[in-house]
Write a structure and sequence with these properties.
Layout: H1 7-20, E1 21-24, E2 29-33, E3 39-43, E4 52-57, E5 72-77, E6 83-86, E7 98-102, H2 108-122, E8 127-130, E9 134-139
């Protein structure tokens, strides 16, 4: 079997790919030609969870074989945050924590204000939060009237 393109040609073409492919939000990583027709992007770090990305292919991009790749834009969203379960008890007092479980870690900075507003509107108790893959809602005082 005779290779159609040398490994050094594919590596050089992968370095050039970054000039013609833009990922937004900016994502550090590297491109790699898997075959002469398939380009793969390998991010340095995990993509942000529950986030939207846009990939733009610019004019002038060609495959390793020299085939013109048309300018296009692709969009995708990484796995969204989903509710999985909540702690359930038949004997709940006002100061017992309520734990809501999600399919991935929850970002406290992005969710704290929303949960505080929702909790105060419904239950009207001051609230403490702790996060991970479970969000703990912890009443911290008496109910507001």
């Amino acid at each position: 079997m005779v290779p159609l393109s040398s490994l050094s040609n594919m590596e050089a073409a992968a370095e050039d790919a970054g000039k013609f492919v833009a990922i937004s939000p900016a994502t550090p990583g590297r491109f790699r030609w898997v075959t002469t027709k398939n380009l793969q992007f390998q991010p340095t770090e995990r993509l942000h969870r529950a986030s939207s990305y846009t990939v733009k292919i610019k004019d002038g991009f060609t495959s390793v074989d020299g085939l013109q790749v048309p300018a296009q834009t692709y969009s995708f969203t990484t796995r969204p945050l989903r509710y999985e379960s909540v702690t359930q008890s038949t004997n709940v007092s006002f100061d017992d924590p309520i734990r809501i479980f999600f399919n991935q870690p929850v970002d406290l900075a992005r969710t704290q204000k929303k949960f505080h507003s929702l909790w105060l509107a419904v239950a009207r108790y001051p609230l403490g939060l702790s996060l991970g893959t479970a969000l703990s809602l912890i009443p911290t005082g008496a109910r507001a009237q």
